Amino acid sequence: MSPRWEPNPDVRMGRHVVCDLHVHLVFVTKYRRGVLTGAMLTRCEEIMRQVCEDFGAGLREFDGEDGHVHLLVHYPPKVQLSKLVNSLKGVSSRLLRKEYPTHVNRYLWGGRLWSGSYFAGSVGGAPVSVLRHYIEDQKRPP
């Protein structure tokens, strides 16, 4: 008798696709100001978790300090990463500035919480060197 196959919960299966996409995102506050408090980080996680759910994605990990946050997001292939990032940053900025106006205005001005840039790194799978070797081994015979 063969061992029972257990599905991997990270692998998403659609009608025409099987995928496992994770991204590590880092958002930095405007001017790298240390504006985020513990309560703000907790609320930021709640907001970002809801935004991810609205996109059909999942926020797997969240943490941060006073000047930046790290997210690990599991997302479907239909999601454009730039649109997800824009929503994560836009919604969290709007709500945190609304809910903590006095504190945020003490550190920042001009209507923005986050820097315009961000870091996005793919996560999981084999290292690039292993993939490169695998693809090279797929060359057609002469």
Short recap of the structure:
The chain is of the alpha+beta class and 142 residues long. The protein is built from 4 helices and 6 strands, in the order E-E-E-H-E-E-H-H-E-H. Helix 1 (38-54) crosses helix 2 (81-99).
Give a description of the structure.
Residues 18-138 form the Transposase IS200-like domain. This protein is of the alpha+beta class and 142 residues long. It has one domain: 2-Layer Sandwich (Alpha-Beta Plaits), CATH 3.30.70. The chain has helices at residues 38-54, 81-99, 101-107, 128-136, and strands at 12-13, 18-19, 22-29, 58-65, 68-74, 114-123. The protein is elongated, with a radius of gyration of 19 Å.
What descriptive keywords fit this protein?
single chain, 142 residues, alpha+beta, two-stranded antiparallel ribbon, 4 helices, 6 strands, elongated
Topology:
Layout: E1 12-13, E2 18-19, E3 22-29, H1 38-54, E4 58-65, E5 68-74, H2 81-99, H3 101-107, E6 114-123, H4 128-136
Antiparallel strand pairs: 1-2, 3-5, 3-6, 4-5
Helix pairs in contact: 1-2
Organism: Nocardiopsis sediminis
InterPro entries: Transposase_17 (IPR002686), Transposase_17_sf (IPR036515)
Pfam family, one: Y1_Tnp
List the helices and strands in order.
Answer: EEEHEEHHEH
Distance between the termini: 42 Å
Please give the largest β-sheet: 4 strands, antiparallel
Number of domains: 1
The averaged pLDDT comes out at: 88
Helix content: 25-40%
List low-pLDDT spans: none
Please state the overall shape, judged from the principal axes of the Cα atoms: elongated
